[in-house]
Amino acid sequence: MAAQRKASRYVVPVAVAGVAAATIGLVPALAASGDPDLPEITAQQLIEKIAASDTQTLSGTFRISTDLGLPSVAGLFPSAVPSGPGGSSTADPSAKLAELVSGSHTLRVAADGPDRQKLTVLDGSDEYSLIHNGDDVWAYDSTSNEVFHEKTEKAEKAEKGARGGAPKHEKLPATPKQLADEVLKAAGDTTSITVGGTAKVAGRDAYQLVIKPKQSGSTVESVKIAVDASTGTPLKFTLDSVSGGKPVVDAGFTKVDFAKPAADTFDFKAPKGAKVTEGAADRAGKDAEDEFGKEFGGGLGGLIPGLEQGGKGGADGSGPEIIGEGWTTVAKLNTGAPAPKTDEAPKEVQGFLDALGDKVSGKFGSGTVFKTKIVNVLMTDSGTVYVGAVTPDKLVSVADSAK
Question: Does domain 24-297 fall into CATH 2.50.20.10?
């Protein structure tokens, strides 16, 4: 147990990078060959088309592949036993859906408006299903025969509203044109947004919206979104890194149908003998709805710097300090404790860390950059952490300037 606790200290940089990468919205994507001949359209018109889309129903199959450029963790913790947070349930969505940020997975999806969605992850003969039906979220893991149940955040808010605590609603753009204007305004001088031709996606004609950083130092080469020419529904998402190679994210529809799914698609009854765990309403229900929002929302928030960027935090414990803007934004966090020395890590962890981290030095002192293809983390020997979707050289430059 002591060895496991010691080893866990060295997983923090990997976890930070993985969680940060996972915040990028995953829009289903896979382009087939062939370029359809479609009427010309501007980037603003295409954004308006996405915003005006009234797609409420769909079903289909798609694959998600992610390549963060991380070394294999197989065998790193051989004694580990899969379980949900705190050993609660292997079906807990907050743990299970995190697996989608690595490797390749086949998924089956269905949606019928904002209150009914179903996502099933198919890995060989095993199956994991996440179902949102009205006020309930159900998750089922066939491998362990475990069920996770949670009331949705919407249901919790309704109960609070009945007690006089109804939530306030933020003002949103009222028309597609207003939303498009907001997107283009937020992009500003840091981002290029263009229409990059057409594509065939799951047999449907689509336009390609191409988003690229204008700033140097970002790890993002481009974000490409294929938009259904008829419905305005996003069908394709590809995130490429400046490091080249396979896309960081390439997830895509192989089949898609916009007809209304059968009502019993969203019914769920716990299988006989299954262990049922009731989740904490303030955590897992929100996680599950957030994941459904990413899959079915189709929004551009989070893809363009500034659309969902919070205010600056301080270094006084209230949050990270935000340095820079746009695609080269870096978060600085003072941990108050010296960084762990990798040469003191257990021998089974050292090889992994050597593949993941590079020793660096500068005006800031010395430290280690833990690398992925999209998010990099600089941990200084004095305990300051810098995180951003920027190159290692950019992190060192920011750290030098911050001293």
Answer: yes
What pTM was estimated for this model as a whole?
0.74
- Is residue 62 within 8 A of residue 253, CB to CB? The reply is yes
Q: Which of 22-26, 338-342, 358-362 tops mean pLDDT?
A: 358-362
Which of these, 61, 58, 71, 101, lies nearest to 11 by C-alpha position? 71
d(C-alpha 70, C-alpha 57), whole Å:
36
Does residue 176 contact residue 51 with C-beta atoms inside 8 Å?
yes
180 confidence band (pLDDT: 50, 70, 90): low
**Whole-number Cα distances in Å, 213 to 19, 46, 128, 192:** 22, 19, 36, 6
Residue (of 234, 253, 232, 372) closest to 303 by Cα position: 234
Q: Considering the chain, tell me which residue range(s) the CATH 2.50.20.10 domain(s) occupy.
A: 24-297
Please tell me the distance from the alpha carbon of residue 92 to that of residue 88, in angstroms, as a whole number.
8
The H or E element that residue 44 is part of is: helix 43-52
Which 3 state secondary structure label does DSSP give 257? strand
